[in-house]
Amino acid sequence: MVNKLWRACLRHIAPCECQFCGQPSQRDVALCSNCQSDLPANRGGCPICAEPLALSAHNPHPQSSLQAQPCGRCQQSTPPYQQALAPWLYRYPVDDLIKQLKYQRRLDHLPTLAALLQKDITASLEQHGRPDRLLPVPLHWRRLWRRGFNQAELLALQLTKDPELRPWQLRIDAQLCRRPQPTPALEGLDRAERARCMRAAFTTRARIDGEYVVIVDDVMTSGATATALSRVLLAQGARRVDVWCCARTAVQ
Fold this sequence. Notes:
This protein has 252 residues and is an alpha/beta fold. The chain has two domains: 1-38, no CATH class; 40-53 and 64-248, Rossmann fold (3-Layer(aba) Sandwich). It has nine helices and seven strands. α9 links the parallel β6 and β7. The longest helix has 19 residues, at 110-128. Residues 4-14 and 55-66 have low confidence and may be disordered. Belongs to the ComF/GntX family.
């Protein structure tokens, strides 16, 4: 209660401006509710892999992801993770927020991206309970050295600081898995090529028998990274693996 009153006072004394419309956001992040409602939501995505499902002339308004049927790929071959949470489409301006974070060091976007995840993560926590560990997708040390930071780890850290998620006491374990070998850039590769590149990309440092682990990343494309990492975690004893990411894009 004290924290909520303090944040309300701060919003009154020094209102945060929305980075899209420039008006006071009435929140602790630079994004107002009106602009957030205009962002490209991933409504009707596959309830397992969160891939956007195609619209048809007979169904221009898709069901929510909780009501939708699994996509054809997931029906043919269920991914090793239980559920991917990706509430937004990797389209403008969500893609700009993520690209500017990764390539222009716009770390000030982290609270906004965490806020975009908060509602869906809260729903997941209420349904499945608190995970034992949040696992940011590891980077190979060379890419980490060039970039200077792991955006997935910073996003996971921001989630633990989010006022609405703080009571859940989410715990990060960035050392659980490592990426011992560099993998080529996946951009421009098709789904099969991405899967081959990621097949043996990760190793784990310890057994995690009976644990619920959530993989955290910024964007999910083909799901090759999440699939490879989930298989390693399940092989080490995890009972459930989910994926939390900001945005989802489709790959043919």
